[in-house]
Amino acid sequence: MAKVLSYIGLIVGLAVMTGLIAWQGLGEVSDLILASGWPILLVPLAWSPTVVLGTMTWRLLFAPGKEPTFKDTFMALWMGRSINTLLPVASIGGEVVKARMLILWGHPKAEASASVVVDKTVQVFGVIIWGLIGVSLLVHYSVEQDLIAAALTGFAVLGAACAGFVLVQKAGMARVMVNSAHKVTKSDYFENMKDGAERVDECVRGSYSRHGRLALAIFWRALALILQTAEVWAAAYVLGHPITIMEAMFLKSMTSTLSDVAFVIPNAYGIQEGAFVVLGAMIGLPPDLMLAVSLSIRIRELIVDVPGLVIWQHAEGHHFFKKRKLSASEKI
User: What are phi and psi of 52, to 5 degrees?
Assistant: First the structure.
């Protein structure tokens, strides 16, 4: 069902994105981007701290001394992010691949799986903090009070849902899911998973019990989002229409938060562009510039995320042929 919704979301998002560009004029938007020249290709560099801090965050969710290497964590994070960005997986498929990569590289299954579950929760808390910064900037720009109230209500609901999800995880989410699946299917497959599920739940509770590391993980995650402000500022600067850091922070916080909330639409196609146009209008920035900024940020998908998918396929292919070779040698 989630996959079907993602495909529908992809079609709707691309339609909205195409409509916005057509409405503003493809020529005007493309002229802005092309006039910037090759420096526009440097904009993704402003995003690089995100993946470094994301790697540091994820490693904090393992037990001290049992963290994967920085390289393994970095590579798995890169692949997972690329999948969540470019494929219709409702921002979940990439998390599965992150855990799978660590497992393929020899890290314990339970620890890898538990870390991904907690890391996803940490990401949501980071988004809430980042979104609240955006709401404070709504106040600064004297936006309509009804909009501010609606935003605060939304974040309150999201925070309560996230807190509830934490409680469910600590209560033994993996065990409940496996037991339920076994009762329905009576399959030995799920029966054999029960011990592993208990171990995953134990690791999840362990991550939440290390309060200092958890708080630091949320801090790093929120800081990574805040530093993404540089991406918007750099894009506008290279396009020849400099904006202030505060304007860039307002635009990035609100557009990225809305994009994360609309996770069913792959890569927030259309959502990001529409948000830039609407929010830009609130602070007096023209729609053609906002569309150009949004599309300039998407250059990162070609430079960073496409290679991430290629590396993932290479890793999966290497594992497949290695497993096949071992199987063949055992038959001899």
Answer: -70, -50
Res 254: pLDDT: 87
**Residue partners of 59: CB distance under 8 A and separation at least 6:** 67, 68, 70, 73
> Is residue 226's pLDDT more than 70?
yes
**Neighbour-count burial of 181, counting CB atoms closer than 10 A to its CB (0-12 exposed, 13-18 middle, 19+ buried):** middle
Whether the per-residue pLDDT at 319 is higher than 70: the answer is: yes
The answer as to whether 28 is a domain residue is: no
Residue whose token pair is 């005007």 = 28
Task: Give the phi and the psi of residue 107 in degrees, each rounded to 5.
Answer: -90, 145
11 and 268 Cβ atoms separated by less than 8 Å: no
Total-model pTM: 0.85
Q: Which helix (H) or strand (E) holds 323?
A: helix 306-331
Residue 296 in any domain: the answer is yes
Give burial (CB, 10 Å; 0-12/13-18/19+) of 71.
Answer: exposed
- How many structural domains does the chain have? 1
Phi, psi dihedrals of residue 31, rounded to the nearest 5°: -60, -40
Tokens of residue 131, six digits = 């979104």
The dihedral through the CA atoms of 251, 253, 254, 256 has a sign that is positive
Residue-number span of the structural domain to which 295 is assigned: 2-8+42-319
Residue 201: phi, psi to the nearest 5? -60, -40
What pLDDT shows up at residue 43? 86
Separation between Cα atoms, residue 312 and residue 70, nearest integer Å = 17
Pairwise CA distance, residues 46 & 221, whole Å: 16
